[in-house]
Amino acid sequence: MFILTLMASTALSNCQADLGNYEVTYLSERQFKIEAQYSEPYTEFHLGHSPTNDRPEAQSESVHNIIAYDVSGGKIDIAYAGNGSWAAPKGAIRISYELSADHDEVLWPHGADEVAHPFGGGYYFTGTAFFIGPDWNANSCPVNISFNTPEGWALTAPWADGPLTGTAKSIEDLQDNGFAIGPFTDSTQRVGNLTLNSLFDPTIEPVVRPYVDKVMDDLLPAFAEYFGGAPSADYTTFHFAYGSSDGSAFARSFTMQYEWPLNTAERLIWAHGLAHETMHLWTGVVERADLENEWFLEGFTDYLAIKHLYREGYYDDYQLRNLLASIVTRHQLGYRLSQGTSLREAGSNKGQNWFLIYGSGALIALMLDAEMSAIEPHAFDDMMATLYQNGKQEYDFERLMSFMDQHSNGRAQEIFDAVDGGLSPNEINAVLNPRGISVAGRMDLSYLSFTGKCRKKNNCAPEFLKKSKK
Ligand SMILES: [Zn+2]
Questions:
Q1: Alpha carbon of 376 to those of 4, 370, 406: distances in Å?
Q2: Neighbours of ion ligand 1 (CB under 5 A)
């Protein structure tokens, strides 16, 4: 599951005027026309750029007939400049172009859900594959969007404010989110000021939607209780059938791809994906000052997703032991595959260091939770709630670690260093065994059991993993 790594931040500025308007017209099957009018001229324009062997110019190859106009309405030169960029040296205040929804003809490095995919008689796109726009830093003022579509179509997007219209907070908000347009009806769930709109591919809806609704109905209140609040946000999720299962997270939206034909035995994997992507809404208070905290953003998020799925009864003890064992295995594989890359460096090449970031990050969370909770029950949970309640802030590695060290009497840095240096299953056992979890294994497999005296078939995990009885 890839999360786009974004360095730009949405600065609040005093906007004299909106950045501009995008008018989208559906021309014919897979063909759209987009006309963008800006409140000031720009010389550079961008789309996302994820090149593949088949599409060396990536998302930009789906753009045709781009035309630019200057402030007096005259046509001016605009040319593709490579890397998903166009240059209009005289400054364009208006551009128009056509876009073919032909993205699913090739395989994309991070999956179709990071680009575009037609389903159910309509279309899903990410903003970075559809809306050509000026630099995110150029202007962070709102953007208005309107669609001309066949009867009965509707827009689903976190920035939507009407059936066929929307207002994005900025060009970043427009580009760094998914949207869908087609004969769709979405569903809504709420907890506090968090609103979640979900859209399902009709192919999978009868089977997937009731399950997803139940998972979200269970998890959203549980997460809000755990963290002592919920973010105030309009969030959108997209669920569609595809050749393989995957998911992607964006600023205010995420996707879940379900391998077709559906294997309903995968339901716990869907639950895990939903829990992980939704947990990012809370752990996302740790904003990226750099890419050195990916082990935390992914690893802690994944650990907390597992812990909550157990607490909410989705995993039984057997499944929980398997999931925790997979954390140990991922750490072993990640350490081997990433060949000496440190955890802090690993985030700058997330795809390459997948197992290391997720496995080692989750292992740090598990070990820290076990250690902190042994000294004071709920200490780890309280630390996470405090982090959330401190609000959205930029953290570099030192700042995040110093926060955790304050709450753990310095254990966070010690555990981080130990895991960063690579721990064998026996070394992990030495830490976790006194806390109720025995670990054995080798590089590619791990056995895990709970050591407490427990005659029950279930709910025998150590106290720190169970539902808290504060
Ligand atoms: Zn994630």
A1: 36, 10, 14
A2: 3, 298
